[in-house]
Amino acid sequence: MASGPRDPGGTGDTGDTGDTGDTGDTYVPGSLSAAFVTCPNETVAKELARAMVEKRLAACVNVLPHVTSIYEWKGKVEEDSEVLLMIKTRSSRIPALAEFVRSAHPYEVAEVVAVPVAQGNPPYLRWVGDSVPP
Fold it and tell me: How would DSSP label each residue in 95-112?
């Protein structure tokens, strides 16, 4: 990503201590999550991604095109081309994120799965925590 808010001066020094805003000066493992949502096409994916960031449900959403999904649906094995969203957020916001996806997604049953983040780049983790309110 561009230098943007994580490096306002473009110097590489953000002054971050790794604090996500949760407690203390260090990252609390599991306080952030990476969530995944599949979408039928890039238009839907980008609309959902932008809305997630605008609503502050996510700090960042990566849109990964050309994912092939093979799954069982209503007794039949299906294969579809989809777009995957990789969403970085606070773990405490996953229920609100899932509710938003259910309300805005065109699928009858939208995929929303989340994995807690155990560790990562401290300035990035702080930025995610600072970008998404508790």
Answer: HHHHHHHHHH-SSSS---
**Cβ-count burial 52-90 (b if 16+ within 10 Å, e if not):** bbeeebbbbbeeeeeeeeeeeeeeeeeeeebbbbebbbb
* Rounded-to-integer distance, Cα 92 and Cα 134, Å: 7
Q: Which residues contact 81 (CB under 8 A, 6 or more apart)?
A: 66, 67, 68, 69
Residue ranges of the alpha helices (H) in 7-132? 42-54, 94-104, 122-131
Per residue in 18-51, pLDDT tens? 444 444 568 999 999 999 999 999 999 999 999 9
Query: Which pLDDT tens digit goes with each residue over 80-116?
Result: 999 999 999 999 999 999 999 999 999 999 999 999 9
**Tokens read off for 96:** 């609100």
CA contacts within 13 A on the Cβ side of 93: 25
Query: How many residues would you count in the chain?
Result: 134
The strand pair at 113-116 and 32-39 is best described as antiparallel
